[in-house]
């Protein structure tokens, strides 16, 4: 069985897009994939929203698929310890005006920790900062410098230790997940009776995800669309 760790972002994005959470159930059943979330992610997705009015219905949707076993909760002292180590390194790796920048939060870092502990096949995370921190730190520095209008310094030792711990983590976004589901025909019921139905549906799906939380550049989105439209089921 393959294992995919989910951050809160992709689940929220799927819930906000005509409740595409059902795709998780179909993919789990058809391809024997184990979807896991950590306790901090559960708190972000369910516990906190249930105490508010905003996103309360989405929280109930997520609670439903957790109760049905589509998504399982993973929690251990090993994950907690690993998350603490990753969080400390991540939030001390970038500095502005001699002060460290708190770039990541406990929930998303716990997803990375769970991915390491479970030797997961992938971690699904839509948030750009966490992905760039591991995969494209120089690009992240440029983005932060532009955003904060100041020079950003990278602590190379801390970053090196962080990347060493996170080595082997494979990131995917909700956009890639839905694109693969589209490729496998799981969304064919939505194909419209219009010219270029596959292109129309895929664009609608991926732009919906982008506009509802998935951090994917327009260029990357268009590349993904072209790649999927070349695929023949």
Radius of gyration: 18 Å
Distance between the termini: 23 Å
Top CATH class of the largest domain: Alpha Beta
Structural class, from helix and strand content?
alpha/beta
Known CATH architecture of the largest domain: 3-Layer(aba) Sandwich
Low-confidence regions: none
Please estimate the helix content. 55-70%
**Total helical elements:** 12
> Beta-strand level of the residues, as a percent range?
5-15%
What name does the CATH topology of the largest domain carry?
Rossmann fold
Q: Strand order, biggest sheet?
A: 3-2-1-6-8
**Which oligomeric state applies?**
single chain
Which word captures the global form?
Answer: globular
CATH superfamily of the largest domain: 5'-nuclease
């Amino acid at each position: 069985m393959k294992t995919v760790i989910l951050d809160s972002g992709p689940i929220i994005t799927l819930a906000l897009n005509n409740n595409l959470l059902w795709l998780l159930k179909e993919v789990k059943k058809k391809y024997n994939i184990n979807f896991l979330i950590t306790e901090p992610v559960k708190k972000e997705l369910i516990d906190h929203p249930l105490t508010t009015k905003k996103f309360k219905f989405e929280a109930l949707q997520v609670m439903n698929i957790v109760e049905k076993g589509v998504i399982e909760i993973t929690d251990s002292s090993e994950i907690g310890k690993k998350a603490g180590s990753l969080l400390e390194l991540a939030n001390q790796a970038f500095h502005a005006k001699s002060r460290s920048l708190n770039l990541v939060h406990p929930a998303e870092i716990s997803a990375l920790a769970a991915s390491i502990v479970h030797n997961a096949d992938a971690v699904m995370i839509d948030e750009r900062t966490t992905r760039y921190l591991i995969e494209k730190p120089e690009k992240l520095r440029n983005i932060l410098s532009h955003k904060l209008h100041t020079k950003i310094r990278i602590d190379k030792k801390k970053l090196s230790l962080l990347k060493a711990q996170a080595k082997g983590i494979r990131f995917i976004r909700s956009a890639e997940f839905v694109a693969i589901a589209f490729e496998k025909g799981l969304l064919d019921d939505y194909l419209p009776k219009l010219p270029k139905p596959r292109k129309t549906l895929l664009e609608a799906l991926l732009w919906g995800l982008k506009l509802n939380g998935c951090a994917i550049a327009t260029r990357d989105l268009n590349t993904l669309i072209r790649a999927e439209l070349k695929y023949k089921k």
